UniProtKB/TrEMBL annotation:
The lineage of its organism: Bacteria, Bacillati, Actinomycetota, Actinomycetes, Micrococcales. It is an enzyme of class 6 (ligase). GO terms for cellular component: cytoplasm. Keywords: Biotin, Ligase. Gene3D superfamilies: 2.30.30.100, Bira Bifunctional Protein, Domain 2 (3.30.930.10). PANTHER family: BIOTIN PROTEIN LIGASE, BIOTIN--PROTEIN LIGASE. This is biotin--[biotin carboxyl-carrier protein] ligase.
Amino acid sequence: MRSTPACRGRVLATSHNGPAGARPATVDGRPGEDVRVTTAPLPPDGGTTPEGPARPPLRADALRARLVSPAGPLGRLEVVTESTSTNAELARAVATDPGAWPAPALLVAEHQADGRGRLGRTWTAPPRAALLRSLLVRPDVPRAALGWVPLLAGLATALALRAAAQVDAVVKWPNDVLVPDPSAPRPGADGSGTPSRKVAGILSQVLPDGGVVVGVGLNVSQGRDELAVPGATSLALAGAASTDREVLLVALEEELARVLGRWQRAGGDVRAAGLDSECVELCATIGTRVRVDLVDGRSVHGVATGLAPDGGLVVEHDDGTTSVSRSADVHHLRPGDRAERP
């Protein structure tokens, strides 16, 4: 899909602490972009597509009323019709005018033309079919503790989906959220078991000024043929109780604020906050046989046995040795499987 200029389009929410203003503005701080403020009410729904379900736009005013201070945890909320990458756009906006983005500050896109994942991977989703958001946070914790941010974001995402969508969401270390997909092809020769597939991905980046941008891309209403990769799923395919993106966004932001708040109050100590045990409990990788593809091109096989103090994945290798992975691709394997790296 062809990329479009960054955040070019209609800004649905521009004021971070009240009704939208009357003056033109840009989300990324650069003058001259075709980005205009609007105070017109949003239509009640997005209609239907010829082949797909109704995909209503997000009602920015309603979201601001629920999520922006003093009613909610956010300092600013923006919804744009399209972004090349919400993480990249938010990082650039903060670098251009840090004071305009009081943390926690949220940027949400109805469509993302060039989303970024770990290791430089890109992906796209149909307009209004996914929840695409990036959050600026400035946690008052030691810099060494920031490695826990993607794991805590995964925990919060899984908890929010369990509550709002009533799906058995779990975390795949370090940054994926999986849900059971009863409509997906069954693994194994006997066709038994309900496969769990990726419904959300998380990408966190530390900014030069110490802030952290936490991006979450959540598949909501996509059909099987609309998914970016074969191993993914959506909440609709998983039979979720709700695919209302506003309900899901509110649940996610409130849960993330709760989890990060506990972590910060404990000075970045996940154990003191009681969050390490929660991460372990909802991490499907722990106790699973895995193949770990390391950044140097090597692969190791073994069983993931726990999380290190810095959030790394502890793996007991087949030869009896143990290692901690901090930047790697991890593949869940069936018992006895020694699949080679593709």
